Amino acid sequence: MPAATTQSTKREAFGSRNVFILSAIGSAVGLGNIWRFPYVAYEGGGGAFLIPYLCALLTAGIPLLFFDYAIGHRFRGSSPLAFRRMHRAAEPLGWWQVLICVVIATYYAVIIAWAAMYTWFSAQITWGAGNENDFFFKDFLQMGDVSKGGVSTQFVPQVGLPLIAVWIVVIVIMGLGVKRGIGRANTVLMPLLTVMFAALVVQSLFLPGAVDGLNAFFTPNWEALADPAVWASAYGHIFFSLSVAFGIMVTYSSYLKRKTDLTGSGLVVAFANSGFEILAGIGVFAALGFMAQAQGTDVAHTATAGIGLAFVAFPTIVSNAAGGSIIGVLFFGALVFAGVTSLISVLEVVVAALQDKLGWGRVRTTLIVSIPIALISIAMFSTTTALAVLDTTDAFVNAFGIMAVALVAVIVVAWLLHRLPALRDHLNRRSSFRVGWFWMLLVGALAPIVLGYLFVSEVISKVSDPYGGYPGWFLSIFGWGMVIALVVLAILLSLLPWSHRSHAKDDPDYDEFLVEESYAPDAETGTVRVPDAVAEGARS
To answer: Which value, to the nearest 10 degrees, does the dihedral of the CA atoms of residues 180, 76, 248, 502 take?
Structure first.
């Protein structure tokens, strides 16, 4: 093969292992770490929740993270290509993950846009003291009621314009590629995010009432450990927190050099993510303790999660605290940075998949993928009914998209294709921390049991009680209909032929990798396996 052709099809790569680790942490550390974990921990028994949390991290989160790393690094491709190289029939799993990322990208961007606007609002306390709730829902979002007027097309400029700006920034980063775009963005944004959030935590700790908030967060409720729902909550949170089964870690690990410490990197990412979550819990509950004291109530009445915490509770804290504007700028600025690093990882799953399938260049693929997603995002989430669409889509894509594809993937890989031993050997050839039969047991047995339990629980919950009280037609479109469409489209995309320019057809990086893998000593016995083609030639 001519050198020019080889160079043109060579797979992109991160500049170094450290850049990969920063990018993986950037993907894992997202909005959920800041606005979801503190409340989940508080509801799950405070300090006692750390026990099921650590159990979930060690027995499910880290093993599944290794699972994703092994697939992406061993088969050197985006999620669809990696699963296809594992087995032709497994390709739909990859496209299922890609389509989930398309959905997530459309609404994730608007939350970043909200946070960007609230960073500016915080500097001036635009909402006015005591008006935080009405300002967000009525003045800022101009929220409408889907049960009365259906889905609105009324454009809300203060949401739409920053949303356009977010997409421009993200598309530029994506177009620059893995090394110059994603790698450099994470190298800059992750240290900034860490410094900003550490400053926020320090400032929150000196607020009056901060100790009450910390006591509420850390005081253990040992009785909660007897509640199966608390353990299910811990496993569910860890699963989403580490970005496993999104296709993100499969894609990112495919950009690693062949000789990379996979499990060592995974441990750094997992514990860094958990460390950030605990830091977020300290900062958030210290601030909520101040809010409770200012309102003359207890922390239980101020503790909340998600959008309510970020855009109602924290503006209330900003309005009442000395130096509140600084707290607001740090908090919402951190949300912006955390959101951007996560969004580019979600989009990379889609861009990499199309690039592998069609063999297009980086800029062309980025524009063809990102611009339509951006237009859909702006059209759907710059309207007065955006919050209802976001709430429903997020709930269903998490429960019946990510959780379902993870469940199916571990069953297919472990029980139908019997690939866990090969993935174990691949990890052990390259890693400082070796895995064995216990890892295979966790991935092949415990993970399906936990994921199956969570999935069935979600199905029962959403069938017995219509989600959010939204009308049936609305849930049929943005809930159940979307979930079914993802599966159907994934199968259809897997049936489309791969381009003759595709990396699946001619990938020198993968070919070199196969040669190296073929002559590598077996991780358990130390013997060298001779490639089939070489053995065949020797016999002839």
So the answer is: 80
